[in-house]
Amino acid sequence: MTRLKLSDITDEKPIKLTVELPTRLHRDLAAYGVVLNGGNTKGAPEPDKLIAPMLERFIATDREFAKARRDAQLAAESG
Length: 79
Prior knowledge:
Blueprint: H1 23-36, H2 47-61, H3 63-78
Helix pairs in contact: 1-2
């Protein structure tokens, strides 16, 4: 296996990513922002600001992903 010079990138600079969302999902994200803002549309977070925290939360709470990741790391360490 090739050894890379970089083993871990800890830089938390945002990465710009362009995605296409179904209209319904965009509408739901906008509504979620309003609910998150106490029902006020003024000052509610825009849908694009909600996506990263939602994905982080999803990944952090996905037990099957965590188990698969642990198993892969153990396999890599023992192999």
